[in-house]
Specification:
Blueprint lengths: L1 E3 L4 E3 L26 H35 L6 H17 L2 H10 L5 H34 L5 H22 L2 H6 E6 L2 E6 L6 H36 L4 H36 L6 H19 L1 H11 L2 H26 L3 H15 L1
Antiparallel strand pairs: 1-2, 3-4
InterPro entries: CCR1-9-like, Chemokine_CXCR4_N_dom, Chemokine_rcpt, CXCR4/ACKR2, GPCR_Rhodpsn, GPCR_Rhodpsn_7TM
Pfam families: 7tm_1 (PF00001), CXCR4_N (PF12109)
Subcellular location: Cell membrane; Early endosome; Late endosome; Lysosome
């Protein structure tokens, strides 16, 4: 039986020596017993396309607006703004892959093998880059608040150089398994886009990538985020003033949002891994429950890419003002282009003058 946890697609097949074979997506490949029934498959075919569509539209609007605003305030970007731009680009790239996973969950994989590898690569890059960027943001806030007097140079180095080596390089390198193992196969007449590991070492590959995923995707960045924000809370709790209290409240929200979205998914993934290893004794009821909750909590984790623009941008008054200015500029720029087509001679010169005056203001 083949289970694609990412897409929720379930295919049954008979492997050599009557063994059970799983071709899961990303790090979620594992052997499962035949008791994993069609009720989870039917649930995923309805649940996943619905939630993915919601995340797609909400993510496009939120992250698209962040990218638009950051593009209109190049000269006034802070270090934190640069991280926000990295994060929104990663999230925006990811949400563009969700329609493919929606189709895969509903009717199976009906795209070429190139897109199979590409979508897996996009998923992996976002998965790791987004959480690593959150860790960098926590480090930046730690330096800005706890070491405010002499941290400007360190913050600039982190935001402009180290972020590429600490975020994007590891995220890209971790896509190598997708480039090697992700492919389209035919199972019982249906096309399935999965990582297909060598049969003789399938358990070892699965467990190895599963622990890598948990370590890089949660444990390491989670410890950095938790440590930095706990120190920040301790620092702000001894400060007075409205702005300090507001910063403390925002910090608590950031911590709760991150762990509320990701922790349930990784708990389910860890339980499933322990069942695969044999640490937890499993039965049909537990397996069905765990796989259903992996689908639910994974969708919840994806929803974090929609929360990022709200948590890291919309909570700030500066961003609200910048967003209004950017949208006004886009709207007025569109109007000026329309008017310029209708005008000739002196009117066109006047329009260009008005446009230049506006953008320089």
């Amino acid at each position: 039986m083949d289970v694609d946890v990412l897409s929720g697609d379930i295919e049954f097949s008979i492997a050599d020596d009557n063994s059970t074979e799983i071709n899961g997506s990303e790090d979620f490949d594992s052997y499962q017993s035949p008791c994993y029934g069609h009720e989870n498959n039917d649930f995923n075919r309805i649940f996943l396309p619905t939630i993915y569509s919601f995340i797609f539209f909400l993510g496009i609007i939120g992250n698209g607006l962040v990218v638009l605003v950051m593009g209109y305030q190049k000269k006034s970007r802070t270090m934190t703004d640069k991280y926000r731009l990295h994060l929104s680009v990663a999230d925006l790239l990811f949400v563009f892959s969700l329609p493919f996973w929606s189709v895969d969950a509903a009717i199976g994989w009906y795209f070429k093998e190139f897109l199979c590898k590409a979508v897996h690569v996009i998923y992996t890059v976002n998965l790791y880059s987004s959480v690593l960027i959150l860790a960098f943001i926590s480090l930046d806030r730690y330096l800005a608040i706890v070491h405010a007097t002499n941290s400007q140079g360190s913050r600039k180095l982190l935001a402009e150089k180290i972020v590429y080596a600490g975020v994007w390089l590891p995220a890209v390198l971790l896509t190598v398994p997708d480039l090697v193992f992700a492919s389209v196969s035919v199972e019982n007449g249906n096309y399935v886009c999965d990582r297909i590991y060598p049969i003789d070492q399938r358990d070892n590959w699965t467990i190895g990538f599963r622990f890598l995923h948990i370590t890089v995707g949660l444990v390491m960045p989670g410890l950095i985020i938790l440590t930095c924000y706990c120190v920040i809370i301790s620092k702000l709790s001894h400060s007075k003033g409205h702005q300090k209290r507001k910063a403390l409240k925002t910090t608590v929200i950031l911590i709760l949002a991150f762990f509320a979205c990701w922790l349930p998914y990784y708990i389910c993934l860890t339980i499933d891994t322990f069942m695969l290893i044999g640490i937890i004794k499993s039965d049909c009821m537990l397996e069905n429950a765990v796989h259903k909750w992996i689908s639910i909590t994974e969708a919840l984790a994806f929803f974090h890419c929609c929360l990022n623009p709200i948590l890291y941008a919309f909570l700030g008054a500066k961003f609200k003002t910048s967003a209004q200015n950017a949208l006004t500029s886009v709207s007025r720029g569109s109007s000026l282009k329309i008017l310029s087509k209708k005008r000739t001679g002196h009117s066109s010169v006047s329009t260009e003058s008005e446009s230049s005056s506006f953008h320089s203001s």
